[in-house]
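Shipment paperwork, digital attachment
Item: protein structure file
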Amino acid sequence: MGTSFDDWQHRIDAVWQDRALSDEDRITRIDALAAELGADHPVALFERAGARDSAGREAEAEPLYRRAIERGLDDGRRARATIQLASTIRNLGKVDEALALLEAERARGSADLRDELAAFTALTLVSAGDPVRAVSLALTALAPHLTHYSRSVAGYAAELAKG
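Attachment content:
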């Protein structure tokens, strides 16, 4: 994906950064830019899904995320699309599937988004009725970032995980 794609991505990023846009304006602008790549381009589908998801239109976002993943995204976008799809379907009441998607993504070893995966897995665990496991996972992700008490917090997280 050469310079023209880089320019396209820059224009997409500018739409996301424009806080003055309404949700509907953002969707309209993203859709117009996505059309430049074509209806079935995986990155275009991913951006269209994100715009709808961000606007609270999860039912519209879900099939777009699924198609984007099926059509093939680079590893970074695939991980982001999986996290976003899992969050979307959690909001739509598909908690078990959301958890399975997040666990599969973690098993792939998405190191760049390890903390993000932990955060959304914790949210999903709360939705699944397992808040203790959710807190354990969140504390485990947080512990390495602490200036003090990292070892203690990691130990407490492990105790919670054991029950």
